[in-house]
Amino acid sequence: MALQYTYSTHALPSPRTTKSLPPDFPSLARRYEALRLEALLTSPSAFASTHAIERKFTPEEWADKIWRDDAVVLVCVAHPAAESNQTPGAAPTLDGQWAGSAILRGPMPAHEYALPPDSGAPPCGSDDTETKWQMTAVFASAAHRGRGLGKLLIQAGKDYALAQSPGLVSQRPASVRLRVLIHPDNMAILSLYSASGFVDVARTTGQEAYRTNGDLSSWELKLQSLTDEMKVYWKTAKVAVVMEWLGEVE
Ligand SMILES: CC(C)(COP(=O)(O)OP(=O)(O)OC[C@H]1O[C@@H](n2cnc3c(N)ncnc32)[C@H](O)[C@@H]1OP(=O)(O)O)[C@@H](O)C(=O)NCCC(=O)NCCS
Prior knowledge:
Blueprint lengths: L4 E7 L13 H18 L8 H4 L4 H8 L4 E10 L16 E9 L4 H4 L16 E11 L8 H15 L11 E8 L4 H9 L3 E7 H7 L3 H9 L3 H9 L1 E11 L2
Parallel strand pairs: 4-5
Antiparallel strand pairs: 1-2, 2-3, 3-4, 5-7, 6-7
The protein binds coenzyme A (COA).
Coenzyme A binds next to strand 4, helix 5 and helix 6.
């Protein structure tokens, strides 16, 4: 019989929420490294970077992928139901099998978030009235797919963005604008974001997808690997599907 699990999601420590590096940070970075390398190995077409590049990262580079000002790493932890050591009612912890992850960039200033006008993207609000975020690199380990991890990670992104947003404007609730840029062939991820309330709002180029995902170093490597014809395609063809979700802080 297949093992039963319960799942919890967590935002890894980042400078926005934690004053200094927690003592267990090197161990967290090693666990994230293992999950990320699994993602790059098993779903090579889904990500901007590659296993060949990231398997050479040093422990310091892995730490920098988590401890950063511009983004937070979200993980989903699987807890075997039969082996749960947790006290009933206690909050789930990072102990357990790391089975999924995602990266949430933001809050991004309007000038960085904006897409070129010909993308058809709707105008966004000013930074005084809303925070702007972009989700990227959602991954569920193959053994745990189809059990709602993708949805849980997206919900964790929404919750984190909402929690970071109140107080922007006194007397009024702030809004959250959360976006994802998707390759149109990735039906699973298109369905996943639709099922999570995201709406198709625009089309943009592969280059813009790399830029707004914060993957500029991967973009330089990508360019080197392309023929001149494909370079033009990635810079001009509007193939990335832009999906957006708007939320209000209660
Ligand atoms: C995409 C991915 C994260 C989905 O994870 P998951 O935990 O299996 O997804 P969920 O169980 O939360 O599925 C939620 C919804 O997503 C959609 N979905 C998930 N997998 C799907 C698939 N293979 N085909 C079509 N729709 C799919 C469905 O709408 C599903 O809702 P339903 O279960 O009510 O039908 C996972 O398949 C994955 O890691 N893929 C490889 C990495 C990748 O492509 N990442 C995207 C980078 S941009």
